[in-house]
């Protein structure tokens, strides 16, 4: 029997792709396709809510779905560490709840973030440059925010060198890492994490050339959500990959 999935933000770029993936997957059925005009109870019958809505609306949508017993996959941007901490509080209140927050569904992007996390303790000078299409409404991107937070975590609280960070042209500090956001026609998505050392620069770059890059990650999230317990963050948590240097 197929599992019913409702999609919040179904009319957007990523939402349309999520709907396509669900429709092509034999284990899932596409249910309600929700937009800003949908009522609060729309899609409540689905076992899974896949949220790719607006950053401002996402927390309320996700909490409402969890409280009515749905499993939730979140692909909406804007889920910073502070927002995730508040979500963890909600999850702790609801026995048996399950939510998977995915900053980026591209497998290459996930591996790029983990490579950056692995390199972070070995360099003190670190900056992120991310570029997306001109219609992307938020900046920095959720991927850049997640990357910066992983870098800070890997450094164990040791600050990076970010000279003149008070200057607006130096980008926005996220977890102590300067992030520079570009919004350009002709771009899908690109992220560079640059590590500066004595006499050298290491750059971890990921380019997304089309939305096809997200299909495998969307499928993986759908197939994994049944086994998620509580709050899981990042596609790597369900793919079983890690940047742990002890491994």
What's a quick, concise take on this entry?
With 247 residues, the chain is an alpha/beta fold. The chain is built from 7 helices and 11 strands. The chain has a 6-stranded parallel β-sheet, with helices on both faces.
Secondary structure blueprint with pairings:
Blueprint (H helix, E strand, L loop, with lengths): L2 E6 L4 H12 L3 E7 L13 E4 L6 H10 L3 E4 L6 H13 L4 E4 L5 H13 L5 E8 L9 H13 L17 E3 L2 E7 L5 E9 L2 E9 L6 H10 L5 E4 L2 H4 L8
Parallel strand pairs: 1-2, 1-3, 3-4, 4-5, 5-11, 6-8
Antiparallel strand pairs: 6-9, 7-8, 9-10
Helix pairs in contact: 1-6, 4-5
Jot down its keywords.
alpha/beta, 7 helices, 2 domains, Rossmann fold, 11 strands
Could you walk me through the main structural features you see in this protein, from its secondary elements to its overall organization?
The chain is of the alpha/beta class and 247 residues long. The protein is 30% helix and 26% strand. The strands form 2 sheets. The protein has a 6-stranded parallel β-sheet, with helices on both faces. The protein has a 5-stranded mixed β-sheet with strand order 7-8-6-9-10. Strand 7 and strand 8 (177-183) form a beta hairpin. It is globular and about 60 Å long. The termini are far apart.
Write down the overall geometry: globular
Number of DSSP strands? 11
Spatial separation of the terminal alpha carbons? 39 Å
Percentage of residues in strands: 25-35%
- CATH architecture group name of the largest domain: 3-Layer(aba) Sandwich
- Return residue spans where pLDDT drops below 50 for at least 5 consecutive residues: none
Question: Which percent bin holds the helix content?
Answer: 25-40%
Global structural class: alpha/beta
Order of secondary-structure elements: EHEEHEHEHEHEEEEHEH
Q: Multimeric state of these chains?
A: single chain
């Amino acid at each position: 029997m197929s599992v019913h999935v409702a999609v919040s933000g179904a009319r957007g770029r990523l939402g349309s792709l999520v709907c396509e993936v669900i429709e092509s997957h034999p284990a899932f059925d596409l249910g309600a396709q929700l937009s800003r005009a949908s009522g609060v109870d729309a899609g409540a019958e689905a076992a899974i809510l896949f949220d790719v809505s607006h950053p401002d609306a996402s927390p309320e949508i996700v909490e409402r779905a969890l409280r009515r017993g749905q499993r939730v996959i979140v692909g909406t941007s804007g889920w910073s560490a502070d927002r995730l901490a508040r979500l963890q509080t909600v999850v702790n209140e609801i026995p048996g709840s399950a939510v998977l927050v995915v900053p980026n569904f591209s497998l290459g992007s996930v591996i790029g973030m983990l490579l950056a996390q692995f390199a972070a303790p070995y360099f003190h000078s670190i900056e992120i440059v991310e570029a997306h299409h001109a219609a992307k409404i938020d900046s920095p991107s959720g991927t850049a925010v997640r990357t910066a937070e992983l870098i800070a975590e890997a450094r164990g609280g040791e600050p990076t060198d970010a000279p003149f960070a008070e200057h607006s042209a130096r980008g926005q500090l996220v977890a102590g890492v300067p992030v520079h956001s570009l919004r350009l026609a002709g771009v899908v998505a690109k992220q560079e994490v640059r590590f500066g050392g004595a006499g050298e620069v290491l750059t971890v770059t990921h380019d997304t050339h089309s939305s096809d890059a997200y299909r495998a990650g969307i499928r993986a999230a759908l197939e994994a959500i049944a086994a998620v317990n509580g709050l899981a963050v990042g596609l790597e948590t369900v793919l079983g990959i890690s940047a742990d240097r002890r491994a």
